[in-house]
Structure formats: C-alpha cells, structure tokens
Amino acid sequence: MLAGNGLFCPLLGFASCAVFIYMTLGDLKFFFREPKMEFVRRNGTQFVEGGKEFYVNGWNSYWLMDQAVEEYSRPRVTKMLHAGAKMGLTVCRTWAFNDAGYNALQLKPGEFDERVFK
C-alpha cells in the first residue's frame, strides 16, 4: 500500500529519526522557575506567612524522605502532598534522618548527600 506510492522509505526514515531523537534526548528534564514561597514566621504568639495568620493543621508521613530520593517513587510523595492540600492540611511532618547506609542523608559527620535533601 505505502510501498506502491513511494512513501514507505521516507516514512521509515522519519520514524527512525524520531525514535533516535527520543532515545537520545527523551530523558531531558526542563526546569521551570519555582514559585516564590514564604517561610512561616512567628509574630508574638502567632504564626504568620506572608503577613497572614497561619494555622498548623497537618499529618505525619514518616516515609516521605525515603520515597523522595528515588525517581520512581517521587510521584507518591507528590500525590500525598496534593492530597493533604486538597483536604486543607497545611503541614506535613516527616523524618529527616538516615545516617550511613542506603539513601543516607548524612554520609559521615558533617557530610550530607544533596540528592537526598531534594
């Protein structure tokens, strides 16, 4: 069908180029500017964020740091944070320690793995 009208070779060439480009550049990540985020501060006995009162309402997820390290499990962390935000929760408390060993945050005293901090 395509071979009869001479389109087979050009289409095969185009498809081969597309596959080659995807295989070569497909895992590139594009980085966009992060939105400006305020830190929560204290004003007397009140927490404030960006000049507005901030109320702590949250949950515990001990596993977040460990799951955030690996590329394949990072979407689980994002889904959990989005689910919390949808429920109106403002704070997630997680553990931030893991010394030596698998996905260690602190490789040795005073030396940290930046990949784990992200």
Automatic annotation (TrEMBL):
<dbReference type="InterPro" id="IPR045053">
    <property type="entry name" value="MAN-like"/>
</dbReference>
<keyword id="KW-0472">Membrane</keyword>
<dbReference type="InterPro" id="IPR017853">
    <property type="entry name" value="GH"/>
</dbReference>
<dbReference type="GO" id="GO:0016985">
    <property type="term" value="F:mannan endo-1,4-beta-mannosidase activity"/>
</dbReference>
<keyword id="KW-0812">Transmembrane</keyword>
<feature type="transmembrane region" description="Helical">
    <location>
        <begin position="12"/>
        <end position="32"/>
    </location>
</feature>
<protein>
    <submittedName>
        <fullName>Uncharacterized protein</fullName>
    </submittedName>
</protein>
<keyword id="KW-1133">Transmembrane helix</keyword>
